[in-house]
Amino acid sequence: MPGRTRVVGVFILFLAGSLLTARPAYAARTAECQGDWLPATPTSEDVMAGKLSFLDLPAVQVGEKVNWKLNPYKNRSWQMVFHSLRWMGRLVADFETTGKAAYLARATEVAKDWVAKNPPGGGADYAWAEHPVALRAPALVCLSRHVPDKWLRDSLSQHARILANDKHYEWGHNHGLDQDIGLLGIACRYDNKAWRSQAIRRMVKTTTLDVDSQGALREQAPRYAVYFHDRLRVAMDKIKDCGLKVPADLAKRWDLLPEHISAATQPDGYLVPIGDGPADVQPAAFDRPDSLVQVYRAGYVFGRTKWDFKESAYYSIRYGPGLKFHGHEDHLGVTYYAQGRNLLTEAGFHSYENTPYRRWTITPEAHNVPIVSGKRFRGGVASTLTKKSIGKDRQSFTVTDTAYGTRRTRAVLVNHDEDVMAVYDTVSSGKVRNLWHLSPSLKVASNAGGKVVVSDGAWRASIVQLALPGCKPVGGQKIVRGQTSPYQGWISGSYMKKEAASVVQSPSAKALLTLVVPGTDQPDVSCSGRTVIVRTSNGPATFKMSGKDLV
């Protein structure tokens, strides 16, 4: 029995026909078993009743004899959580705090059965995938604080050998960090210096690969910056619990991430739904940047008019390295939030299942991007920020790439004195069209003469499109909502859910200027040469087209 465990009584339990030697009626809390790595659901009472609820999906009754090949929702994420055994770890943690020996007995029974039924290379299909292995290791280490049996020690040794094998390791990814946390936990539990050194060495490398020197996560989804920040704190706590010093690079990157998370958070408190991130992620309050506009080399521009003001305007622009990890093909895409509402949003994140809908959510057609008519899209192409101008009340940026085999360029100007977003799309050859995904809360009130008016109750906003050169209204916009063949006009605001939402599809033109004007259905737009004047209800906004840029 470990020295940190206080024995206050020993008795005999009969459970499922097996004779089990009971552990202490009350046990000291251990670092391995306590902490927020434990899931909130299912509760220990649910687990004891055989009801497992993961990912906000309806609970599944597993019974006393668990079928480890169970996959009721045909969902990889459900399988991952199931085989992580963290729900088993919940029982051990609650045993430590309540002294209920039945919790420990059931946890032991579940883990022992899992080990027997899922040998490496056998058992359930997903049992030994890299992420379940990483997340399961801490749960088994926790159990080992109260169960010294050989089968558990042998299984933990097997887990450590797999986690230590770089062939299975996810470099520069949140999974890699989880793998190192799992390996370090086993190494510290059994004082294996080689595994301990390897885990910390890889942690540092993976963290500096995944979080750049600006504090931006390179996984191309701000949602995962929140996860990585949480897990990095767990990693640093684990290092301290092991009696070691936290490497400076880990602490530095952990300190930098909060400002990136805050920059990616809209004025309503929710993360902007970029990449594999639904619109319902509301991070805790983090340190924020001093500036109102942030430009990250990892491929993000975030800007707002004020901090701590729900009515603030907010926008995002995507560019940078080609598709990786949790990213989508959203380069040159924008989002826009103004006057307390989402106007331009993204199709969002539904799930990781390989379905036609999931595949569509990753495509350019699920984002607010320019599309080169008649040209084939090439995935994974990087894009470049070629120009930026950041003023107090106005910012402009130009981004470009060759994802369609010809150069497409998008200039974005955001005016804040009078809320206006202007987007200028050009291509080096052919014609361009664009897509504008509207928040599900917005309804299309009218569509005529190159102007689409949307409403939210009495509130109005306008999307005006002009063909260039000539600055003439271009009509023929098509509104698509809830289409399934092909998919278009959907928003996934939360996991495994989707709802119909309107998308404005423009006609094709040699160049398109799109004006998004919140707060009015009657914007007066005029052009004088290459100067554009947008008269809003709060006054005029004036800007110029300079080549392919907006100034």
From TrEMBL:
Source organism, top-level taxon: Bacteria
Pfam family, one: Hepar_II_III_C
Keywords of this entry: Lyase, Periplasm, Signal
Any GO CC annotation of this UniProt entry: periplasmic space
UniProt xrefs under InterPro entries: Chondroitin_lyas, Hepar_II_III_C, Hepar_II_III_N
One Gene Ontology term of the molecular function aspect: lyase activity
Signal peptide: 1-27
Chief localisation class: periplasm
Protein name: Uncharacterized protein
Lineage summary: Bacteria, Bacillati, Actinomycetota, Actinomycetes, Streptosporangiales
Domain Heparinase II/III-like C-terminal: 322-457
Places the protein is found: Periplasm
Claim: Acyltransferase is one of the keywords in the record: no
Residue span(s) of domain Heparin-sulfate lyase N-terminal: 58-243
